Amino acid sequence: MFNIKYYTTSPRIPPVCRSTMFRQTSSRQLIRRIMIPMHVTTKQIRPASVELGVPMRRDPRVDMALGLPAFVQPFLTWLTAKPAPGEVAPPRRPAAYVGEAIGLTLGGTVISALALAFQNPATPWFWAALFVGLLGTSSGLGLFQVVIFHHCSHGTVFSTRARNRLVGRLVSAILLFKHFDLYQKEHMLHHNANKLFTDDDEFTDFVVGICDLRTALDRRALWRHLGLLLISPWFHARFLSKRIKGSLNSFERSHNLIGISFWATLLIGAALSHTLTIVMIAWVLPVTMLLQVATVFRILCEHRLPSIEIIDQRGKQLICEATAGVFPGGFPPRRDAPSLRGVLAWGGWWVNMLTVQLFVRLFVLVGDAPCHDFHHRRPGKRWTNYVHARQSDLDAGCPGFPANYSETWGLFRAVDENFAAMARAPADLFG
Fold first, then answer.
1. How is the chain split into domains, by residue range?
2. Using one digit for the tens of pLDDT, what is the confidence trace for 322-364?
3. In degrees, to the nearest 5, what angle opens at C-alpha 62 toward C-alphas 73 and 331?
4. Rounded to two decimals, what is the model's pTM?
5. Fewest CB atoms within 10 Å of the CB: 112, 186, 250, 315?
6. Among 66, 2, 1, which residue's Cα sits nearest to residue 34?
7. First-to-final CA distance of the chain
């Protein structure tokens, strides 16, 4: 059972019968009353201490801890990337993320290949297996991109700089990422508040240079442009061409030869063994189009444009307002399950969590992507326990920064908020 702590914000009281944990905590008389507001985007606030000196929390994860039994809490912590109040962080090493990335990538590819080789496309089992396989592969590739490749550039995956660089270079050569050394150099500039949202920033280069999303468009136009972009063969071909050029035509010949040898061996071997169709669907599709779609959504929700005054001032306030936590999920129902309406409400909530939100967590918000704001504030700190590390830093008031963390619940809401910020920005902000 988690050591749950609760926070007072207003007069609503969750149904006592919904949670064993609530009854046990009440019996210890740790709280008076609890209320969680309906909105899912929180502003930057300093946490206020109440009664027991515990920082106030206002998020859906607290409601989940109150209304659901203990055995589902670890799963919800992983799914939402937010810990239950008082939850202790389980120890995790970087090697676990490496193993997870390899396992998901290989496992998903094998499932897809077996479905394509032995299942009848006329049966639902074929499509179910293919979906699971492609999702698994895409999730593993996302972990290689967001966690392994990224944190190797910070030198925090392996114990030595040489090993981080070696693995980073292998990943960039095989998965068609920009040469690791060049990416590392550009990414360090991205962490510099003086370079963020400038022509030297990788975020600006991606949003404007690749996606052609400009501040001259209004919010609806940005969504319309994004929708057309994701189904455009021209966009995916241009994106892939840029990736191939950055990976297989880099400044380092040995790096290029590794990538060219891998892809040539794979495709020639598949052609000779008459499995080219299987390889193209089970492997090439996730590495190209699916990874590119996930990358677009991930980058569009990781950062948002603050006011032009904040951008001009630079400094730590820009870091605070340019990033926000993005968490899959939403508030659970307030009705008791025993009623018909309660059953329908809880059933709908679980369907959403186990379909849309689970897909978002596996496909887009992989690894520590939901806590990207923590990474920008503490780039070298506790990334393996990012869920609990961010919450601890938030509860402490984020020492050293002028504003605490802000967050949004829901991927599409986060992208929409970013588009709204872009629409408010000057039309010539990005030139």
1. 16-38+54-86+325-398, 94-316+412-424
2. 999 999 999 999 877 778 888 999 999 999 999 999 999 999 9
3. 95
4. 0.86
5. 315
6. 66
7. 54
